[in-house]
Amino acid sequence: MRQIAFNTPIVTQLEQDYVRDALASPKHAGDGPFTKRCQQFFETRYGFPKALLTTSCTDALELSALLLDIVPGDEVILPSFTFVSSANAFALRGATLVFADSEPHTPNISVDAIEALITPQTRAIVVVHYAGVACDMDPIMALASRHDIAVVEDAAQAVDSFYKGQPLGGIGAMSAFSFHETKNVSSGEGGLFVANDPRFFERAEILREKGTNRSSFFRGEVDKYGWVDVGSSFLPSDILAAYLTGQLERLDTIQSRRKAIWQGYRNRLDSVAEYGVTLPHIPDYATNNAHMFYMVCDNLDQRTQLIAHLRERGILAPFHYLSLHASPYFKDRHDQRAIPNSDRYTECLMRLPLHLGLSDDDVAYVAEAVIDGLRR
Ligand SMILES: *Cc1c(COP(=O)(O)O)cnc(C)c1O
Fold this sequence. Notes:
Mean pLDDT: 97
Largest sheet: 7 strands, mixed
CATH architecture of the largest domain: 3-Layer(aba) Sandwich
Shape: globular
CATH topology of the largest domain: Aspartate Aminotransferase, domain 2
Helix content: 25-40%
Radius of gyration: 21 Å
Bound molecules: pyridoxal-5'-phosphate
């Protein structure tokens, strides 16, 4: 029987050549020539003012929390329907996490929910562009600026996606991307920190380099380097950056194939509506970077049966996040507010395989299995 993985990493000769070059070079540590190429790629292509590679998106988010000087008692508003890293970065600094609900038509954070949760203690709003589809940034940025709150974009899934023409990751004070193997471009593990607000440019380099001013030393701006601030080691090896360089140079090819697969599912799945299943909603202000193809089932039983049916056909189609406000770690810390849309996505959302190892025939096979599973 055909076996269809949820994700399969695909690399070409280009990535292999660059990794071989990096291994042959005398520079294997961070901030080598391949790291510079990756950072330049983002600064040039998207106009990000300051892009720094990190070992993961999780690290880039931790760097954000350090840069914002988050201390115990500070409140951070973020969606409940997200990956643990969006929350951990701030929980590690002792922040009080205030979980907000998702929009009814997308899993993105609800603007009305944010507004209702702002207090004088609110220091940051973390937005997550779920499936690479933009949150409604204009009203969020307006709210944040009115209350002098920093916006951090968790753009882990949002490479090469836009809000009203602006690249995601380039709108908030700072942002974080992921190059984990499940994302559109990968280095196995990897991330990118972006600072858009010039207040953070210099200190971001220092905190990423163990609290030293090593980066300005190498640019010849200071004559010795030392310990000037707190910090950690957020630099990936240049060997990983070499892998990522190959992926970035193939970004347009990767994106056009991912979009074709996404559209292939979309074209074949209109009839799921008859069973109460909804397909992704892309608001007018957002683009679709084909990070994910998800469906929202009518109820938990339907989803459980559909996932089981697909598994019998050799197809892995997992569900996704579990509301963080109801997690074992957080449930006793939560203020008991109901967060119903997040709970609905927790129970009803599922994802179809989407990767470059899929043929057009595989896409048709998966779509047929979905319809067939719902019909039973
Ligand atoms: C993948 C992901 C992360 C974590 O990325 P890593 O690079 O694995 O640390 C964080 N937030 C979201 C929304 C993600 O999808």
